[in-house]
Design a protein that fits this description.
A: alpha/beta, 3-stranded parallel β-sheet, 4 helices, B: Rossmann fold, 31% helix
């Protein structure tokens, strides 16, 4: 069970841990239903479609950050701290990302450049 | 120089360059375009190999999300300059600039500095030696820099053009 101080910390300077979407999905504890939503929301946000076996090293830096955002928002974490989220994003993506964050019912903190 | 043409930079992504691109010492260039339009791929797959092929030239490349590069620079500093502490991208950029100045003093050559969203761009711009600066930055327009525009045509292709 999460204590009130527990938070998922997502640093846009290190957006992904593995090179495969399947592993990221496991790390973020996302179920099959969440996986479909993840792929859909990432495609809407980035304009790029990815499969669970996708080699994430082929994504651009900004796309990795967008994927981190989608993973975090779909994870079971109630509190999330995003660090330097804005730096790698263009104006359009940043606007879209802000909308997703404001629509989320999670407790979200934007750190550093955001 | 990078010739105009069609470049398959990843198995599922290509860049179409509309005209020959020149990167000249003393000038600045800014790569503009949305996330995923191929700016970093252009740097990694086309620009860096072209610059590495220039004999006697110095190349400083600060990559996007540079945490791994930061460890490499720390390791270099630990071996070559044990008194210097490197704990941030700014420290790393300053260390590289100092190292570059030493090398340039010993043997001058053309200097190319490539920054892919480096958070300490101001440190690179402050270099007093003549250099060519090539930058990706989503938030600032570099004054006086020639703009190279990357426009995604679809998921698999972007066009690269110069703003004249």
């Amino acid at each position: 069970m999460n204590s009130p101080k527990d938070a998922l910390i997502c640093d846009a300077n290190h957006p992904l841990i593995s090179q495969c979407l399947r592993e990221e999905i496991l790390l973020y504890h996302i179920d099959t239903q969440g996986e479909a939503i993840l792929r859909e929301s990432f495609e809407r946000l980035s304009g790029k479609s990815i499969s669970t076996d996708h080699d994430l090293s082929e994504l651009s830096g900004g796309q990795k950050v967008l994927l981190m955002l989608c993973l975090a928002l779909l994870s079971p974490a109630r509190s999330i701290v995003f660090k330097d989220l804005r730096h790698s994003l263009d104006a359009h993506r940043w606007e879209h990302a802000q909308r997703m964050i404001s629509e989320s019912d999670k407790d979200i903190t934007l750190g550093c450049d955001a | 120089m990078i010739k105009a043409g069609y470049y398959q930079v990843w198995p599922d992504f290509a860049l179409e360059i509309g005209s020959d691109l020149y990167f000249e010492p003393g000038k600045s260039y800014q790569l503009q375009g949305a996330n995923g339009s191929g700016k970093s791929s252009f740097i990694q797959k086309l620009l860096i190999p072209a610059l590495r092929a220039r004999k006697g030239a110095y190349l400083v490349y600060l990559e996007q999300q540079m945490h791994l590069q930061l460890y490499a620079i720390k390791a270099h500093a630990a071996f070559h300059a044990p008194g210097i502490r490197i704990s941030s991208p700014s420290d790393a950029a300053m260390y590289l600039m100092q190292d570059l100045k030493k090398a340039y003093t010993a043997k001058p050559g053309d200097i190319y500095i490539v920054s892919d969203e480096c958070p300490c761009l101001h440190l690179l711009q402050a270099l007093k030696l003549p250099h060519c600066l090539i930058v990706i930055d989503h938030h600032e327009v570099l004054p006086g820099a020639e703009q190279l525009r990357f426009e995604a045509q679809n998921q698999n292709l972007s066009k690269v053009s110069r703003d004249v």
